[in-house]
Amino acid sequence: MGKYAMLIVLGLFASTAALKLQANRFTGQSVSNYANKHDKYSVRNITNGGAMMALNALTVDVEETQGANNISLYGGSYSYNIERQPQDATLGVTDVRVTCIGNYNSLNDTVIVLLTRPSFSRFAYFTNYEGNIWFGTGDTLFGPVHTNTYFRMSGYPVFWGKVTSHQVYNSSNPYRKYYSGPTVPEFNGGTEWGVPKLTMPTSIPQDLIDAAQNGGIYINNRYAWVEFQADGTVKIASKNSSSNPPQSAYTTYNLSSTNGVIYVHYGSSPYVKVKGTVNGMVTLGTKGRIRVTDNLVYADDPKTNPNSDDMIGMVAAKDIIVYNNHHDQDRTIVGSIMTLNTSSSYTRNFYVDRYNKDRYGDLHLYGGLIQRNRGAVGLMGSPTSRKGYMKDYHWDSRLQHMTPPHFPMLFVLRKIAWWD
User: Fold this and answer.
1) Of 27, 57, 407, 409, most Cβ neighbours within 10 A?
2) Would you say residue 327 lies in a domain?
3) Same structural domain for residues 105 and 169?
């Protein structure tokens, strides 16, 4: 019995020692696992924190280019860089990429954030200030519609895209109703009132001017005549007097041999007259005014071919005017149209010449209209007494993913993806 008892006691000691060793091993492994997890969580938090610091810098200034190097955070450090198309040609013209690398206890982690700076061209209709102009019966708009003030509505206008405004008319009505008669706007794309203000630029962006001077077409005369041709060329004449130039004064440019930017600069008030058939990607900008003197259309109509790569943007520091109108005749204008006129006393921006003098047909606008102050296209009335044009505005849905070259962009960034 003593021998068996001894064996039992020895077995118990061995088992206890083994269990103790195993417990110590598990304890050490648990501590090690905890430390590893702590380090991984720490380096992840540091990296995400660094990425957020980069996004904060871009919130303050959407054109920020300065990165950061070895910034201390939570016992570790982070570095980040900000890249755009000049640094990486694979990025889109509106894309911004933030790459942040965090470090903690010899562990590294990386976060990549892809953002885009949306272009104003994404809007079907945008105003900074609506003024005393009303949407009325017969007005039909497609695509996103926004104002930084509030809308005025009369009768039965129809909106097929989402309608938003920064302000509301009063606590009961987000838009102002006309003084008499029914006001029943039709919002088929939904509404949102009281959204954040979307600030407009106050002058032609410098990158557009730089693009015209470096690979584009830069005109330094007071008057310019721009005629787009269906074969992908554009004929341009310019001089300092307003008399129409002879055909021999025109120079022909191949759009595909340029970066697509045409800019007219002269003093404070150059005039640009434009018409024709656009074949290619182009933005026409000026420090002054643009007059659309006839139909402006695409060689490859995106309404029948959604894969068309023809697109134009027009940007004027002052006004864009629908000119040379004829009684009861329609006018067709394509492209994203943007006016920046900041004058408090002259606020017509995009408007129809003699809109209150004669009755025209329908104004077919296919693209988008962005203006600081809303200009007049016509005056309401009966079919026989109304003046100007009736609006037929259609949004070019390609503007969801296409932008005219160097078209002005919003002062905000939108996150596309976050990889960690």
Assistant:
1) 407
2) yes
3) no
For residue 269, the model assigns a pLDDT of 85
Residues 351 and 215 in one domain: yes
132 plus 50 within the same structural domain: no
Structure tokens at 353: 């010449």
Q: How far apart are CA 207 and CA 217, in angstroms?
A: 14
Does 132 lie in the same domain as 275? yes
Rounded-to-integer distance, Cα 262 and Cα 245, Å: 19
Coil, strand or helix at 52: helix
- 329 in any annotated domain: yes
Token pair for 132: 């005393």
Residue with tokens 């990158």: 207
Q: What is the pLDDT at residue 13?
A: 57
Report strand pairing: 163-165 vs 145-147.
parallel
Structure tokens at 237: 């004449």
Residue 333 in contact with residue 343, Cβ under 8 Å? no
The full DSSP string for 185-236 is -EETT-EEESPPP-PPPSS--HHHHHHHHTTSEEE-SSEEEEEE-TTSEEEE
What's the gap between Cα 272 and its chain centre?
A: 25
> Can you give the residue range of the structural domain that contains 176?
120-400
Examine the domain organization and report whether 135 and 107 are in the same domain.
no
Quick one: 156 exposed, middle or buried, by C-beta within 10 A (0-12, 13-18, 19+)? middle
Alpha-carbon span 341 to 320, nearest angstrom: 10
The model's pTM is: 0.78
pLDDT in tens, 193-249: 999 899 999 899 998 999 999 999 999 999 999 999 999 999 999 999 999 999 999
225 in the same domain as 152: yes
Query: What pLDDT is attached to residue 345?
Result: 53
Same domain, 238 and 324: yes
Q: Express each pLDDT in 46-61 by its tens digit.
A: 999 999 999 999 988 8
Domain identity same for 300 and 388: yes
Question: What is the number of structural domains in the chain?
Answer: 2
